[in-house]
From TrEMBL:
Keywords: NADP, Oxidoreductase. PROSITE patterns: ADH_SHORT. This is Short chain dehydrogenase. It holds the Pfam family adh_short. GO terms for cellular component: cytoplasm. One of its GO terms (molecular function) is oxidoreductase activity. Belongs to the short-chain dehydrogenases/reductases (SDR) family. It comes from Colletotrichum gloeosporioides (strain Cg-14). InterPro entries: NAD(P)-bd_dom_sf, Sc_DH/Rdtase_CS, SDR_fam.
Length: 244
């Protein structure tokens, strides 16, 4: 378990079943150390659950800047750093260590949000970062499976009753629309257990877990031109429909 905050109560409940590593996921060096420490302790990394997330740290609307002739200050993009960049950093490190497993490969699950597809006007950067996570998962999934035996998928929870949300925000959600934590856990378990799932996004809404997109036509990839792929990534893609 890696987090920027220590949860002593949870650690006591988990006991010897878990180890804690204080980590700022927006820092590549801190994630690197955590991955190395976990590898040194257990000698394997089977799964990465990229669950860290924060909301907007500032306002791109700059409503309080209206009427000023001065240029607005540089925006604080900490939300993007944690949510999106943290996933990219973790994925690259997971690839490195999962290659060294006794049976190479593993599973990566990214916690996105229903804000990836449903507007949340109070947190536009959060919406963009979470949508970016889904795009990243879909963009990387097929090559990771072919090249590394690694599956990568995304879970999109709705509003969950947690201490992170103010009581007023929870109260504003219509009755029956609160997503149960058990619903989200079931989506994670589905991705961990079903090895046929790769590049998928499951939306967790109330008590339901449903695919984000229906129909294979919506999942048709943009044709990959292998000369460009090799120029960028040092090998051909291995995708059967790639254009030589």
């Amino acid at each position: 378990m890696a987090d920027i905050n220590t949860n002593e109560k949870l650690l006591q409940e988990l006991g010897d079943n878990a180890s804690f590593h204080k980590t700022d996921v927006s820092s590549y060096s801190e994630q690197s150390k955590t991955f190395q420490d976990v590898w040194d302790q257990y000698g394997r990394i089977d799964a990465l659950l990229a669950n860290a997330g924060v909301v907007d740290k500032g306002s791109i609307y700059i409503l309080n800047h209206r009427g000023s002739d001065e240029l607005p200050p540089k925006p604080n993009l900490g939300c993007t750093d944690v949510n999106f960049k943290g996933l990219v950093y973790g994925t690259q490190l997971a690839i490195h260590f999962m290659r060294k497993n006794e049976t190479p490969g593993g599973s990566i699950i990214a916690t996105s949000s229903n804000a990836a597809v449903i507007p949340h006007e109070a947190a536009p950067e959060y919406c963009g970062a979470k949508a970016g996570m889904v795009g990243f998962v879909r963009g990387a999934s097929r090559v990771l499976k072919i090249k590394e035996n690694i599956r990568i998928n995304a879970v999109l929870p709705g509003v969950i009753r947690t201490p992170l949300l103010p009581a007023g925000a929870i109260a504003a959600v219509p009755p029956g629309c609160i997503t149960q934590l058990s619903t989200v856990v079931s989506a994670f378990n589905k991705f961990l257990d079903d090895e046929s799932l790769n590049g998928e996004a499951l939306e967790c809404s109330a008590e339901d877990v449903v695919p984000l997109v229906y129909g294979k036509s919506t999942m048709s990839p943009v044709p990959v031109w292998d000369p460009l792929f090799k120029m960028m990534h040092h090998e051909n893609s291995g995708l059967p429909e790639a254009v030589a």
